[in-house]
Amino acid sequence: MSVHTNRRDFVKMAGLGALGFTILPSLYGKAAASDRLRIAHIGVGGMGNNHMKWFADLPEVEIVALCDVDELHLGETKTKLEAMKPGIKVDTYGDFRRILDRKDIDAITVATPDHWHAQIATLAFQAGKDVYGEKPLSYCQREGKMMLKHMEKNNRIFQMGNQIHAGDNFHRVVEIIKSGAIGNVHTVRLWKQSTTKELGSPTVQPVPKTLNWDMWLGPAPFTEYIPEKCHFTYRYFLDYSGGEFADFWCHIADVVYSAIQPKGLKKINARGQAYTGIADAPKTLDVDYEFDGLKIFWTTLPPNIPGAAEQGIGAFFDGDKGTLMCDYNTRKININGETMTDIATVPITNPRSPGHQQNFVDAVKARTQPESNLAYARDLTIPMHLGLISYRLKRELTWNADKEKFVGDKEANKLLSRKPRKEWDLV
């Protein structure tokens, strides 16, 4: 095979990948310049730097622009990229809209704080860009619906950045569950042990000259600058995110949605412990979910199951023939008192990923949706939003899954969306 792959051949190979044939990046060699996907990264803090490194390693990707509201982040990331790719020419911006205006950019990645995810992605769809967007999918439930509508209307591609979705362990767990080896799964227990610390009660500070604070806030309510509300620790404030729960729900609930596709959510009941300082996202959280024929329990402390306490995050599937416990990289199956890590008689039926970012690139070129596509990601994310609403209102809620509304609860339904600040209502 030639080291240069033309666009027509690439699309043919990407199509095979969609049918279940694994395509490894090494097969492509060095892509011709005309066949490269031109990508811009929006939000280049910690996770944004991961985006940059992952996509820089793919031979058929050309990184052409970086964007961040913090000039320090922008400069540091540009320097890192230039060290990785000597001679690269990359443009930098403080306003993501300048990237969306460019007709020569094919796709963007989004690693901003959560409250910006949906607006940027939706505007990108409208501008004809495909999107690799960080988790969680959106700040609120209605934003996910908006994203899906505009993605479909503009025939765009979207992959959510829950990278663990591509791992072999999750794929194998899905195969085992779907095979019926542990029978009908009636209960799932999910947990993530808390590692957060109190942020205390810091005071308002002058905005650094290198930071566009008003644009960092964007659609969120205006507040004076407090460093702890910005950058990494933003996730502990409900105006921007939902704490560790919002950070990790989609990672471990992902294997549940891939394996058994929970349907018919009816009840949500959340309890949690609040921080004592400035942060207002839940410090600890337990949520009970009732679906059709299935109960899912999210807890901060591990369940009382042998081995669970040793796992900082995990999923425990309880079936009528056996159980399966897993985390990102391990699994333990128990059937009739016998414990094992695999079942040799369960065939490999779930196509393995060529890599989460490669899967996105393949999908963009083949014009087929990737594994962690927007429709899937939205279904996965809705229970997270509803759990936070139950926590905020401190009561059990009843949900109509068909109408996507709470039953007889105007206060809860109001929290399904948030009107952006007028000057940042861009969609």
From TrEMBL:
Domain of life according to the entry: Bacteria
Protein name, per record: Gfo/Idh/MocA family oxidoreductase
PANTHER family assigned: BCDNA.GH03377, NADH-DEPENDENT DEHYDROGENASE-RELATED
Ranges where the Gfo/Idh/MocA-like oxidoreductase bacterial type C-terminal domain occurs: 202-425
Record-linked SUPFAM superfamilies: Glyceraldehyde-3-phosphate dehydrogenase-like, C-terminal domain, NAD(P)-binding Rossmann-fold domains
Classification via InterPro entries: Gfo/Idh/MocA-like_OxRdtase_N, Gfo/Idh/MocA_oxidrdct_glycsds, Gfo/Idh/MocA_OxRdtase_bact_C, NAD(P)-bd_dom_sf, TAT_signal
Organism of this sequence: Dyadobacter chenhuakuii
Domain Gfo/Idh/MocA-like oxidoreductase N-terminal: 37-161
